[in-house]
Amino acid sequence: MIERKVSQGIITTYFNKLERNLDLDVAIVGGGPSGIVAAYYLAKAGLKVAQFDRKLSPGGGMWGGAMMFNQIVVQEEALHIIKEFDINYDAYDNNLYVMDSVESTSALLYKAVHAGATIFNCYSVEDVIFKNNEVSGVVVNWTPVLREGMHVDPLNIMAKCVIDGTGHDSEMCRTVARKNGIRLATDTGDVIGERSLDVVSGEEEVVNGTKEIYPNLYVCGMAASAVSGTPRMGPIFGGMLLSGKRVADLIIKRLK
Ligand code: 48F
Fold first, then answer.
1. Which SS3 state, helix, strand or coil, does residue 205 take?
2. Taking CB atoms and a 6 Å cutoff, what residues make up the pocket around ligand 1?
3. pLDDT for 234-251, tens place per residue?
4. The domain spanning residue 169 has which CATH number?
5. Which of 49, 86, 90, 178 could bond to 42 as cystine, CB 3.0-4.6 Å?
6. How many domains does one find in the chain?
């Protein structure tokens, strides 16, 4: 019966996919633009990478452009990444380029999966695995389970490296610091919190702040700004793309 085969096809392939991803080189928490770019470059380098996003549609804050005007701006320094993802762009002004935010977000997702990354949507990462004072993986649960406040235990996924790409909330960094009494590699040893908007310094600092923040825990994108206390930058996305590429480069250098 075709009805049964449809169900069986979904169930068997889904559980194969999940099982294949129980031991990862890299687990990326959050499917915003920085994390997706990281997933693409890591997968392209042959690493086993999975990305977890709590929403039905990963893509984070890129879909909406600014105030739902669905255009984004990228500066010259990051244009090579736009080209790598085959995204259409128009030159706008001195070193600035504009593109459609829906095309851009879907292109990032499409290319990351085609490069070999697995994206799990509707998964919330509620904790990390913390062994011998190192981050060793992620603890995942269905987003609806957490939203409903249901008392259901999560599953564990091992990873050599974990990337916190959760955006403004920098959830993984906060969780690791709060639960384990450790110091992150920031001025205070804790999550400092992002500063008010400044495009030039925000864009520069988000890339500088992309690093290993605790053994095996890396941070990229707005999470990197929030952890290190640097400014937000608004709907200019070059820094996000460059941050994703940088975290991938750091991990590739370490694991390959
Ligand atoms: O915030 P977000 O888009 O990440 P980003 O890569 O990009 C920031 C920009 O979109 C924008 C900006 C640009 O200049 O300032 O804000 O830093 O996306 C973060 C994603 O992480 C998911 C969330 O659903 C979103 O899609 N996320 C957050 N916490 C968790 C999570 C979690 N605990 N588990 C799973 N997903």
1. helix
2. 29-35, 52-55, 58, 60-62, 124-125, 165-167, 171, 221-223, 232-237, 240
3. 999 999 999 999 999 999
4. 3.50.50.60
5. 49
6. 1
